[in-house]
Write a structure and sequence with these properties.
The protein is built from 10 helices and no strands. By secondary structure, it is mostly helical. The protein has one domain.
Length: 193
């Protein structure tokens, strides 16, 4: 069972990165990206509700292969829905460069921040420092396409702190796919002149 859960987690991380890249590309090349994300979120909510009561062919495949077993029973597609919602919020609330940097950090940092399980309720341990550093480096690199390198580094560090706090508070209460882009967008909005 543990091996199956690790396999699902790896697939979730890969899907997380692919979805984030797709959203960034849409934001760069499609003027109506906000509407696309809005309708995707609305359709996702509807499919999530329907999936609680019946098997939806394509949706069921994704849920079985990418969703944590607990959420299949209570909130199918939670992570993806919150990723889309978080991306939509930052695109609506912040200037384009800040929004894209926030989504880039969520896309490439977040999977590595939590790739290795943290213990002690979100406090960093030697086992997870590697995931933290890789996540920060990738997030900084990705965000630096839209903002300066130092701003990207500050934002990635802030994302790591926020991720740790969400783990400490409990991931069922706070979803980092909304919190991280909003927190990163806010800090960038404050530090970018």
């Amino acid at each position: 069972m543990r091996k199956v859960l690790k396999s699902i987690e790896l697939r979730r991380k890969i899907l997380h990165i692919l979805v984030g890249i797709a959203i960034i590309l849409m934001a760069l090349f499609l003027s109506q990206v906000k509407w696309i994300l809005f309708f995707a979120a609305a359709a996702g909510i509807l499919l999530s509700i329907v999936s609680l009561y019946m098997r939806v062919p394509v949706v069921s495949f994704f849920l079985e292969n990418f969703e944590r077993p607990h959420y299949r029973k209570v909130f199918p597609g939670k992570g993806l829905l919150f990723f889309v919602a978080g991306s939509l919020l930052v695109l609506k609330l912040f200037p384009r460069e800040i929004a894209l940097a926030s989504i880039a950090i969520l896309t490439l940092s977040d999977p590595f921040f939590s790739f290795e399980k943290r213990v002690f309720n979100g406090l960093f341990t030697p086992k997870t420092i590697s995931g933290l550093l890789i996540g920060m480096a990738l997030g900084t690199l990705a965000a630096s396409f839209f903002i300066t390198l130092i701003q990207a580094l500050i934002a990635s560090l802030f994302a790591a702190i926020v991720e740790s706090l969400t783990i400490f508070l409990g991931s069922d209460r706070v979803d980092d796919n909304i919190i991280i882009p909003l927190a990163v967008g806010t800090i960038l909005y404050l530090i970018i002149p």
